[in-house]
Design a protein that fits this description.
Order of helices and strands: HHEEHHHHHHHHHHHHH
Shape: globular
CATH class: Mainly Alpha
Number of strands: 2
Largest sheet: 2 strands, antiparallel
Distance between the termini: 53 Å
CATH superfamily: MetI-like
Structural class: mainly alpha
Number of helices: 15
Oligomer: single chain
Radius of gyration: 26 Å
Helix content: 55-70%
Strand order of the largest sheet: 1-2
């Protein structure tokens, strides 16, 4: 009598790391360069965060200064720059999330509604192009187009009475946030819409056909078919944006800064740079490290809060 061999059951628990390395060693080798990169440039520098609690001494090095505890955090919190930089950073971040975040979603839905492939490809190519313009060139374009005297777009806005006749869009602080957010939407809206277009491409065509048979119009199809399909992607990207709420783009803001709009354009990242490379005096490395560490802690808290809220409301999150 022949007996059939029973397949060996593999235990799901109690496996060592070595077992997983042996099973998928090819994948681990492919992953190794990324792991090494992250360890060297992301984890090893964390040891230098103790500089925020030490008084930096050029002779003793980064780790040889006297321990001062929370002194530099207290200095930053008690200084006038704390409220200025924090308010400016949060204002720019929340305005960017409020206006810049929904823009690629709307654009992706509009592109998805186009049925003629020729016009669809033309629109996609047109809105992608600004993303490849460097930040330096973009700010130079803003300086030319929105110049107080002779700027084409600034003169158009004045002609349409959208802004006052004597308005200086690049110099007056009340216009800085809108210039930053508006130029950001124009530059990145098309590129950021790619991931939403990819999510919409996975929607079953039969859902559209069923909705048309039931008499649903375009708006109803968008709200009941396309938008629910985008919700998981929207929430993941929103959580990631909330995790960088205090990391407002340094390069663009620094290039747009001038003495006239400094009260609105001085954010945490530019303030840290001014501490590291002051125009007068010695660099304040410990103070800059303390401010940077404070920024990272706040970003991490916002990330956890956004992830928790997303999981409770929509059931999807990063963790």
């Amino acid at each position: 009598m022949s007996t059939t061999a029973k397949p060996k059951r593999m235990k799901t628990g109690g496996r060592s790391v070595l077992w997983y390395l042996q099973q998928d060693w090819q994948l681990w080798i492919m992953l190794l360069p990324a792991v090494i990169y992250i360890f060297i440039f992301c984890y090893m520098p964390m040891y230098g965060a103790q500089l925020a609690f030490r008084k930096y001494d050029f002779a003793k090095g980064i780790y040889g200064g006297d321990w001062v505890g929370l002194e530099y955090f207290k200095q930053y919190f008690s200084s006038t720059m704390f409220s200025t930089t924090l308010v400016n950073t949060l204002t720019i971040s929340f305005c960017s999330i409020l206006f810049s975040f929904p823009a690629p979603i709307v654009l992706a839905i509009i592109i998805n509604q186009l049925k003629v492939q020729k016009w669809k490809r033309t629109l996609q190519t047109t809105v992608y192009i600004p993303y490849f313009i460097s930040t330096v060139v973009l700010v130079s374009m803003l300086n030319v187009l929105f110049a107080k005297n002779g700027g084409v777009l600034s003169d158009l806005l004045k002609f349409l009475h959208i802004v006052p006749e004597k308005a200086n869009l690049l110099g007056q602080r009340q216009y800085f946030v809108w210039m930053y957010v508006g130029s950001g939407i124009w530059q990145s809206m098309g590129w950021n819409s790619i991931i939403y277009i990819a999510a919409l491409s996975s929607v079953d065509i039969q859902l559209y056909d069923a909705a048309k048979i039931d008499g649903a119009n375009v708006w109803q199809r968008v709200m009941h078919i396309e938008f629910p399909a985008l919700v998981p992607t929207i929430m993941i990207l929103l959580i990631m944006n909330m995790g960088n709420i205090l990391n407002v783009g340094f390069d663009k803001i620094y290039l747009m800064q001038n003495t006239l709009n400094l009260k609105s354009s001085e954010v945490i990242s530019t303030y840290v740079y001014s501490l590291m490379a002051p125009k007068t005096g010695a660099p304040q490395f410990s103070m800059a490290t303390a401010v940077g560490l404070f920024t990272n802690v706040v970003n991490f808290i916002f990330l956890l809060l956004a992830n928790t809220i997303s999981k409770r409301v929509t059931g999807s999150g990063l963790m």
